Amino acid sequence: MAEAEARLAELKAQGREVPGPEMIKNGEQIAGIRKACKLNSTILDEVAKHIRVGMKTNEIDKIVYEYTVSHGGRPSDLGFMGYPKSCCTSVNDVICHGIPSDYVLKNGDIVNVDLTTELDGYFGDASRMFMMGRVSKEAKDLVNVTRECMRRGIRAAQAWNTVGDIGAAIAPYARKHGYSVMLEYGGHGVGLASWEDPFICHAGRRGEGMVLVPGMVITVEPMINMGTEDYYESGFKNWEVHTADGSLSAQWENTILITENGPEILSE
Q1: Which of 39, 87, 136, 232 has its CA 20 to 30 A from that of 193?
Q2: CA torsion, points 22, 201, 97, 223, in degrees to nearest 10?
């Protein structure tokens, strides 16, 4: 710990962007965050058991709410800045923050289910993609490439690397496949609240941005579009974010802990 603090002080003296002490979690906090992430993952497992063609996205939201509260947690999306539901269900051209509704999932749809769970004052965050029935090759490729983008971003999140290294690992891989990367929405710190600093952009330059320090807890959650990176907002209080050209979008997300031995995925 003393060695890390000395290194952090040296980097700050060099003018590097470093995290404030509130971004670095202690052992007790990490233990609590780990439990919240575990519950968050089991809720997504429960969704995976039931999600199907013909299901309303409101039914997914009901599963999330009932499972969460029956296991001692709180769906922290519910009421966050006025958000009306317990999770986000982003279907096809919805990039993020899709609001569960009476929309019926159809054969060929792709849907991201994103949720944040509070347990005993700590927070875990993750999302997964689900493919409904017979999905086109183009949609499958987008979903799979996006998952690999997340994995590459996580691998780049090594202690003493930077936030820019995460984006530098993601964006070129996505663009190589002809896709675009959402820039205005991205990952973030998490753990003591559902959204904390720093912002994690999924396109960046190696060595730039905030230094990643052991004890930081962040999400890596690339949003990758088949077409343009341009978007528009709609729905309740403009929560829903859509691709401007109506093209498909996909997202995967995990919460990770930065350690000296490499990133630890807390939400799988």
Answers
A1: 232
A2: -140
